[in-house]
Amino acid sequence: MTDRYAVIGNPIAHSKSPAIHAAFARQTDQDMEYDRILGQLDDFSADVRAFVAAGGRGLNVTLPFKELAWKLLDDISERAKDARAVNTLSVLDGGLLHGDNTDGLGLIRDLADNHGFSFVGRSVLLVGAGGAARGVLRPLLETGVAALTIANRTAEKAVALAQSARTQGPVCGCGLDQLGDQQFDLIINATSAGLSDRALELPSGCLAERGWVYDMFYGDQPTDFCRWGLAQGAKNVIDGLGMLVEQAAEAFLIWRGLRPETAPVITALREGQLSTTPP
Ligand code: ATR
User: Does residue 159 contact residue 182 with C-beta atoms inside 8 Å?
Assistant: First the structure.
């Protein structure tokens, strides 16, 4: 019988996840289908329950439900607990719901495996202190970085987030305007600034020579943050498309027990060879 999966979010029409998972399923010869569900803003849990009642096996959860999914779970992974958000939901035997978060690992895999960034001994700046930053914090600290600085427009949120992770590695928090003349080997954007039209302000010169810039978001055109990285002379400027595919591959592994090849899927998406528009 064909196993059913889906991504749930609101809005959802733009999601590339159905195209990514369809490509993984073809590649690994899995009998599965993967849809998109427009979740109800006022009753997300009803949509999840209906999906499970209809025999669904797993859901990817995206904005704005990642933190709400938490409440529906019977079991939750350590990494989802750290992130306080769930992006992968699995239906276990008896209809029990397991929640996990693969976003952080997706970021690390994209940077380390796909692009060859070596984290050990590096100084990293994580810009932003919301859900996106929280989701990648622990995986970043586990890479062996020399120092991780969280900088946020609202300084208190960065300080509190750093404080919450202080037992996990060398991390500190500050305001964006308190970075002074520090320099970083890697600067990661985890703010939603690129999603709005308000520009993100970073001190020029904060990227070390041959430093890298990573935007957790992506678009058809280079993002504002990627453009900033290019203007700073970054050695490598990367958007979040690879992270999206890598977090999906981790979810696929949880559900199907096999890890698909991500490189051909990333290339196909970049070259517009995978249709991502809803039928
Ligand atoms: P998410 O869960 O997607 O991370 P969020 O919790 O609303 O979303 O957090 C958004 C992040 O983007 C915050 O770190 C926010 O900074 P504040 O905490 O000061 O609000 C940051 N952000 C949004 N717009 C920004 C801008 N124009 N400049 C700098 N930071 C911005």
Answer: no
Closest Cα to atom 5 of ligand 1: 130
Is there a single domain that holds both residue 124 and residue 220? yes
Domain count for the chain:
2
What residues pair up with 37 in beta bridges, in sequence order? 8
Q: pLDDT tens, 211-222?
A: 999 999 998 889
The Cα–Cα gap between 159 and 10 comes to 30
Q: Looking at ligand 1, which residue's alpha carbon is closest to its atom 24?
A: 193
Domain containing residue 152: 104-239
C-alpha triplet 270, 274, 276: angle, nearest 5°: 100
pLDDT, one tens digit per residue, over 164-205 is: 999 999 999 999 999 999 999 999 999 988 655 566 788 889
> Is residue 66 annotated as part of the catalytic site, yes or no?
yes
Check residue 176 and report its DSSP letter.
G
End-to-end CA distance of the chain, in Å? 23
The pLDDT-based confidence of 278 (bands split at 50, 70, 90) is low
Residues facing residue 174 across a β-bridge: 151
Q: Kindly state whether residues 108 and 228 are assigned to the same domain.
A: yes
CA–CA separation, 242 vs 88, rounded Å? 17
Report which ligand 1 atom has the smallest distance to the Cα of 67.
Answer: 2
pTM for this predicted structure: 0.94
220 and 120 within one domain: yes
What distance lies between CA 133 and its chain's CA centroid? 9
Q: What is the CATH number of the domain that holds 158?
A: 3.40.50.720
- Rounded to the nearest angstrom, the distance between the alpha carbon of 128 and the centre of ligand 1 is 6
Q: Is 144 part of a structural domain of the chain?
A: yes
